[in-house]
Amino acid sequence: MQLVSKKPKILVVEDEAIVARDIVSLIKNLGYEPAGIASTAEKALALVAKTRPDLVLMDIQLDGPEDGIVAAGWIREQFNLPVVFITAFSADDVLERAKLTEPFGYMHKPFTERELDTTVSMALYKHQAETRLRDTTRQLKALSRRVLEAQEIERRRVALELHDELGQSLTAIKINLQLSERLKDQALRDLNQENIRVVEDALQQVRRLATNLRPSMLDDLGLPSALQWITEQSANRNGFVVNFHHVRAQPRLAPDIETACFRIVQEALTNIARHAQAKRVEIRLDRDGDQLVLQVTDDGCGFDQNEARARAIAGESIGVLGMQERATLIGGQLHIESTPGRGSSVQLRCPWRNHEESS
C-alpha cells in the first residue's frame, strides 16, 4: 500500500479579511492546506492549539491589545512552530522586536505567489531540519547517559562474579595448599585432586565470563557461526523456535560490520524474549548487490511504533538507540516495522565490506 503524503497545514493570522482570503487562496494554489484564519493574537493561539498547523503566516499589526510579534513569541514558546511574518512594516525597531521571536521568514506586503512559495518551502524545510537535529541531540544525550549506566551495571556484574565465584575458587585452593603442608600420603593425593577440580571450575567460570563479554567465535569463525551460536542459545533459553538463513561461501566481513550485526541480532533477540511472546523467529543474513541485508522477524504481539519512537527519543529504550547507533557507525540504516498483534521486523542495510577492505 502506497502512503499519501500529508499536505502541510498553514494558519493565516491577518486582521484584514480581504487580504486574509487572498493569502488563503494563494496557499491553496501552492498545494498547502489552510488551517484557518485568525485576526487577533488570542484567536491565533487558540487556533494553533486546535488545528496544530505546520506553519503560521503572521501579520504584525493585528486587532486587539497584542500584536503579531507577541503572538509569534507565544506560539514559538508553547508549540515550537515556525512563524513567517507578513507585514507592511519595515521600521528598525519592529525588525529588532521580530528577531527576538526567531522567525523563519519575513515578507513585505505586497508579495508574489512565487515569493510566498519560496519563503514557505524554506521555512518548512528549516523547521524539519531543526526538529531532526533536536531529536538526534536528545537521542545522543540519552544514549550517552544510558551507556554510562549500562557500563557501570556490567562492571558491577563482572566484579560480583569474579568475587563470588572465581574468588571463592581461589580461596579454596589457598586453604587446600595450606592444609597440604600438614597432610601426607593418601590425604595429600585427595587434596590435590580437589585442587584440580576447583581449578577446572575456575577455568570454566573465566571462559563463561569471557564468552558473555564477547564470544571468541565471532573473531575466530566469523559472523554466521556466531549468529548460529547465539540463536541456539536464545532458543534454548527462551523456548521459541529460531531459524537462521545466511549466504554461504562468502568471504569474511569487515570486523566492525560483524560486531555491529552480532550486537543488533543480540539486542533484537533480547527484546523478543522480554516483550514479544513470540513462538517463531526468522533471522536472515543476505547480500543484495553491494549491500548487506540483515533481518530479524518474529510472530509475537508487536508494538506501537509511535510510542516506541517516543520512548527511544526520550532515552527510555537504550536497546533501540544502541542498534540505530551501531547501524550509523557502519554507514547503514536500521528500519523497525511492527503492528500490534502482527509481530515485528528489524532490518539493517549497510555497504558490504570484506575483511580485506577494512584495513
Which residues form runs of ≥5 with pLDDT under 50? 1-5
Could you name the CATH homologous superfamily of the largest domain?
A: Histidine kinase-like ATPase, C-terminal domain
Largest sheet: 5 strands, parallel
β-sheet strand percentage = 15-25%
How would you spell out the order of helices and strands? EHEHEHEHEHHHHEHEEHHEE
Total strand count, please?
Answer: 10
CATH class (first level) name of the largest domain: Alpha Beta
Per the CATH scheme, the topology name of the largest domain is Heat Shock Protein 90
Q: What's the domain count?
A: 3
**What spatial form do the alpha-carbon principal axes imply?**
elongated
- Please bin the fraction of helical residues: 55-70%
Number of helices: 11
CATH architectural arrangement of the largest domain: 2-Layer Sandwich
Cα separation of the termini: 43 Å
- If you average the pLDDT, what whole number results? 83
Gyration radius, in Å: 31 Å
Can you list the strand order of the major beta sheet?
2-1-3-4-5
Structural class: alpha/beta
Tell me the layout of helices and strands.
Layout: E1 9-13, H1 17-29, E2 33-38, H2 41-51, E3 55-59, H3 68-79, E4 83-87, H4 92-99, E5 105-108, H5 113-180, H6 185-213, H7 216-220, H8 223-238, E6 241-246, H9 255-276, E7 280-288, E8 291-298, H10 305-313, H11 318-329, E9 333-338, E10 344-351
Parallel strand pairs: 1-2, 1-3, 3-4, 4-5, 6-7
Antiparallel strand pairs: 7-8, 8-10, 9-10
Task: Describe the 3D structure.
The chain is of the alpha/beta class and 359 residues long. The protein has three domains: 9-111, Response regulator (Rossmann fold), CATH 3.40.50; 135-213; 217-358, Histidine kinase-like ATPase, C-terminal domain (Heat Shock Protein 90). The chain is built from eleven helices and ten strands. Strands 2-1-3-4-5 form a five-stranded parallel beta sheet, with helices on both faces. The longest helix is centred in the middle third of the chain and has 68 residues, at 113-180. It is elongated. Mean pLDDT is 83; it is low at 1-5.
